[in-house]
Amino acid sequence: MEENFKMVAKTLFGFEELLENELIQLGARDVKKGIRNVSFSGDKGFMYKSNLGLRTAIKILRPIHSFTVSSEKDLYNKIYAMEWGKYLKPTGTLAVDATIHSDLFSHSLYIAQKTKDAIVDKFRDTTGQRPNVDLKFPDLKINVHIDRRRCTISLDSSGDSLHKRGYKTATNIAPINEVLAAGLIMLSGWDGQTDFMDPMCGSGTMLIEAAMIACNIPPNLMRKEFAFERWQDWDVDLFEKIEESLLKKTRDFHYKIIGYDKAPSAVSKTKDNVKNAQLEDFIEVKHEDFFKTQKGGEEKLHMVFNPPYGERLDIDMEAFYSHIGDTLKQNYPGTDAWFITSNLDALKHVGLRPSRKIHLFNAKLEARLVKYVMYEGSKKGKYMK
To answer: Is 61 helix (H, G, I), strand (E, B) or coil?
Structure first.
């Protein structure tokens, strides 16, 4: 039996509860929600599983040592004292990143450098050889987290952020992060039991994440590499077994996922990305201006989209958001419409009252995920039936 150890999954602000639920459903133990992270326990196979299967995680860290720290010299000495030979060969490569919340230290890059020096010096002193730094493809990626006087050293099992799913080769001017897209769809409560639409689909991220959620496809199957594949205890047979067990849990999807964009270049990029993700059977992409469209059929429609904010695109925001409200009201009865925006002033021009508002961040921008319920006929009529 593999032994269980503690891990920390990092996420975006506002997604902690989603990630907590995902971990519980995957089978994690000792699940505990923090701010922008959730800690849990599992074995090596579960570490592989969490990297492959979590939609709202950005990274999976494995803490290996924690101590109080009083100065740079103290930090250096305590890192030097650790048994690095368990994790890295003297001729291997490493990369270090640091996150600092402390009045003792101000520069995270300097702390990363100090950590690297301590590890390299330890190898040189004990073996006569030293590992090199490789920022792109290190054998070991180390995370240093200092909170006031507490320092935690973790191994980064993911490597590149887990939002880099591997299906996206083409992006548009303002692409949405894959983890953000998946989290928005999950917050919207979409369960794959209705048609889904993104009327401003950009490079197709929302459509692809929606299809993977509907079919219960693990989000990171297409990734080229995880950092743990370079670890000394990498077990390819165990990894393949975990991958196979997740694939057995995929399910059928009997509705449509539709994407519109008025830019031909966006439509073509979306089609490329959908093809890369091997989801052409589920996703239909059309060159359409949302403001000139209407809902087809009587069935319930679930809409999630990311309209332009004005930060990178030069448009009249008031008129644009007012147009969104008019189009939804007049042309999309029987629709639950959700969208995210960081243009909080423009929201006032939608002309509809949101039934929900969720506080989030899109990158560093404060944002709101809002929900508008478009009833069949009038709202009053709905209650009089």
So the answer is: strand
Q: What is the DSSP string of 325-353?
A: HHHHHHH-TTEEEEEEES-HHHHTTS-S-
- Nearest CA among 85, 88, 100, 168 for reference residue 134: 88
Cα 243–Cα 249–Cα 254 angle in degrees, nearest 5: 130
pLDDT tens sequence for the chain (385 residues): 679 999 999 999 999 999 999 999 999 999 999 999 999 999 999 999 999 999 999 999 999 999 999 999 999 999 999 999 999 999 999 999 999 999 988 899 999 999 999 999 999 999 999 999 999 899 999 999 999 999 999 999 999 999 999 998 866 556 789 999 999 999 999 999 999 999 999 999 999 999 999 999 999 999 999 999 999 999 999 999 999 999 999 999 999 999 999 999 999 999 999 999 999 999 999 999 999 999 988 899 999 999 976 555 567 888 999 999 999 999 999 999 999 999 888 899 999 999 999 999 988 889 999 999 998 764 443 433 3
Q: At what angle do helices 108-127 and 72-80 cross, to 10 degrees?
A: 40
∠ CA 210-215-216, nearest 5°, is 95
- SS3 annotation, 124-145: HHHHCCCCEECCCCCCEEEEEE
Q: Tell me how crowded residue 251 is: count the other CB atoms within 10 A of its CB.
A: 9
CB atoms within 10 A of CB 340: 25
CB-based contact 266:306 (threshold 8 Å): no
Predicted TM-score of the model (pTM): 0.93
Query: Considering only CA atoms, which of 141, 158, 223 is closest in space to residue 9?
Result: 158
Q: In terms of Cα–Cα distance, which of 95, 18, 19 is closest to 59?
A: 19
Q: How far apart are CA 85 and CA 87, in angstroms?
A: 5
Residues near 253 by Cβ (< 8 Å), separated by ≥ 6? 192, 211, 214, 215, 282
In degrees, rounded to 5, the angle at the alpha carbon of residue 44 between the alpha carbons of residues 29 and 122 is 115
By CB atoms closer than 10 A (0-12, 13-18, 19+), residue 51 is buried
The H or E element that residue 278 is part of is none
